[in-house]
Amino acid sequence: MAGEVPNLEASKLTALVVDDNFVNQSVHHKLLDRLGIKNDVVSNGQEAVDVHCSGRNYDLILMDMDMPIMNGIQATRRLREMGIESKIAGVTTRAEEEEVKEFMEAGLNDFQEKPLTISKLVSILHNLEFYVQT
Amino acid sequence: MQRQVALIKQSLFDQGYLDEQFVELEELQDDANPNFVEEVATLYFKDSARLISNIEQALERGSFDFNRLDNYMHQFKGSSTSIGASKVKTECTMFREYCRVGNAEGCLRTFKQLKKEHATLRKKLEQYFQLARQAGPKETARRPK
């Protein structure tokens, strides 16, 4: 991304990365770090549910679709059933219309196709009204 | 030395081994994590070696479980996409197509090519990172022309 990368540290936003792939975990964690967003990482949907059951809460959840044990669609539905109102952005390589529709209907607020970049992450933050692009 | 680093990097892009995503990762490097891309690449090659081994074992069994093979390759494609490993990603896509239509020979042929591209990328990136470390951090943040 050319130009300035926004620093959202002052906003004290928090995020949860939900992805079973170690490379994606590392990249998404670093992308959020670069934007000044403190974040945790879990490896599947069940862990995402468990971390919320333990009392943690996040402003933003970056949810992968395909994960073992509990996938992103199941986890998103479960979190919404639990009353979790965090903004959830689906991030996946799958981009077939039907698959995206199913994922969105599970309770997503936004969706981005992988690979995630600073630009795409800023777009998510803008769409979810965490950040106003100038 | 820095010119040599730049040339190696340019060739990786010109020959299609890497795409724009690699540049995105380099731009995440900072003073706190000056070797971020090399760390991610190390993770990638560790993970992909595991996936290659799993796929090899699955193929050696003879009975093609295309669902399982597709799952492995989906993971492989995901990692390759995230690091910008363009040629490897293309082979992953092709392999998945062959899985979709149940073409065992196509899978075997593509897998052979995938391993070749993967090994070449690994070797070239190892060389690039070694030289980049010697040259210093400045060169790695620049976009190729």
From TrEMBL, chain A:
PROSITE patterns: RESPONSE_REGULATORY. InterPro entries: CheY-like_superfamily (IPR011006), Sig_transdc_resp-reg_receiver (IPR001789), ST_Response_Regulator (IPR052048). Pfam families: Response_reg. The modification 4-aspartylphosphate is found at residue 64. Keywords: Phosphoprotein. One of its GO terms (biological process) is phosphorelay signal transduction system. Residues 14-129 form the Response regulatory domain. This is Response regulatory domain-containing protein. It comes from Brassica carinata.
Automatic annotation (TrEMBL), chain B:
PROSITE patterns: HPT (PS50894). Pfam families: Hpt (PF01627). One of its GO terms (biological process) is cytokinin-activated signaling pathway. Keywords: Cytokinin signaling pathway, Phosphoprotein, Two-component regulatory system. The keyword DNA damage does not apply. It is found in: Cytoplasm, Cytosol; Nucleus. Residues 33-128 form the HPt domain. Its main location: cytoplasm. The modification Phosphohistidine is found at residue 74. GO terms for cellular component: cytosol; nucleus. GO terms for molecular function: histidine phosphotransfer kinase activity; protein histidine kinase binding. PANTHER family: HISTIDINE-CONTAINING PHOSPHOTRANSFER PROTEIN 4, PHOSPHORELAY INTERMEDIATE PROTEIN YPD1. Functions as a two-component phosphorelay mediators between cytokinin sensor histidine kinases and response regulators (B-type ARRs). Plays an important role in propagating cytokinin signal transduction. Histidine-containing phosphotransfer domain (HPt) contains an active histidine that mediates the phosphotransfer. This is Histidine-containing phosphotransfer protein. It comes from Brassica carinata.
